[in-house]
Amino acid sequence: GQQLNQSPQSMFIQEGEDVSMNCTSSSIFNTWLWYKQDPGEGPVLLIALYKAGELTSNGRLTAQFGITRKDSFLNISASIPSDVGIYFCAGTYQTSGSRLTFGEGTQLTVNP
Amino acid sequence: DVKVTQSSRYLVKRTGEKVFLECVQDMDHENMFWYRQDPGLGLRLIYFSYDVKMKEKGDIPEGYSVSREKKERFSLILESASTNQTSMYLCASSIRGGRETQYFGPGTRLLVL
Hey, are the CB atoms on B109 and A40 less than 8 Å from each other? Predict the structure, then answer.
């Protein structure tokens, strides 16, 4: 099946810094989703993107659906300690139906 | 807000026991999914269901079965638990034709001794 390449795998940043992570695919995706998972919890949906070029914000988070439909990025501005967690991208492509393909996650550590 | 609940947050079972993990969603979603999550392996789809009494195998169905008798409830069954089924189990749901946005429950961490 399809795979999503998510990078970086991990990030160690200082509080207040901005963060950027991205996902790429070899195929065209119809939907891009970004989730955050805290330790021991289920993933929580942060942002959903449904159209090429779409740029959506949720507080300090901004995500974009790439024009080529093969990539997406998530930015976090002015990071705070509670941003710590694992961030996953996920998406669907033409023949995947309702099944999501997941990236491997970006582990974010924020030092106060 | 979509709410997906899972019957237990933590479970400890013995090898060979039959284990039931239950998931309930309150948003009338048609689609429901069971995943397991292991370090280094990401989220892997076990089974999913598009409707009541419908089920489809995911990528790793071996050793598991599912039941969907009511729209809001999707159960994962480990017929005879084994130590290699120790994992974090995540349930999710989505609306049919709803751009496939899945909403997850809090997870059940299962330890099989």
Answer: yes
